Structure prediction request, 253 residues.
Amino acid sequence: MSGSYDRALTVFSPDGHLFQVEYASEAVRKGTCAVGVRGKDVVVLGVEKKSVLKLQDPRTVRKICMLDEHIALAFAGLTADARVLVNKARIECQSHRLTVEDPPTVEYITRYIAQVQQKYTQSGGVRPFGISTLVVGFDRNEPKLYMTEPSGIYTAWKANSIGRSSKTVREFLEKNYKEDMDQKETIKLAVKSLLEVVQTGAKNIEISVMLSDSTVKSLETEQVEAVVAEIEKEKEEEAERKKKPSTAASGRS
Prediction:
């Protein structure tokens, strides 16, 4: 029981918990799923899109944002909180360019985002940001993928997921991730992992691909549908292969 220890952000419970931070993590788990996968010379972000209403402009519903020319971010959790955090990160990117005359590294901006998130777990009169982020980009032509949490922790990953059913997706990535994947394999793994939780197929999946020259391209729905169709075909072929040995064995008996 939380008792009255969740009334104020700055009060620890007797067993060392900050309940408001844990509630923020729960808001992330209720958000749509986002996936990041690092390849040999490519990094892919994939997100689960909510179905837009008939009269709504889909361009205004974005789960993948650019922070700088070479850094992109996907988030899970409260969209309004993400907008505030993304704006802070964009200003920091431009401030870094003005001060140092160099673009910020992916780790630098990830550390800044995590620092802002941590600051909002330690002050009275505020609440934690209810989002986790996946930050991707290239540093010296090397792909990078970082994750930040509402508590202010940030970690580097080869592949990871946040949001709804993230544990299931992470387990799938652990089983299927290979080192030095090319662009096609990386995109396929990101789509495959999202299909673990997205039942409606390609129309509810958004994929952004960042290449080593820091160009970012968002895949059209038709391109995502083609990848999904290829994955479905592979699954059918695998099911057929599994059936054949069993039919051969029954024939011998």
Remarks:
- The beta strands are 34-38, 42-48, 64-68, 71-77, 131-139, 142-148, 154-156, 159-162, 205-211, 216-218.
- The first strand starts at residue 34 and ends at 38.
- The chain has six helices and ten strands.
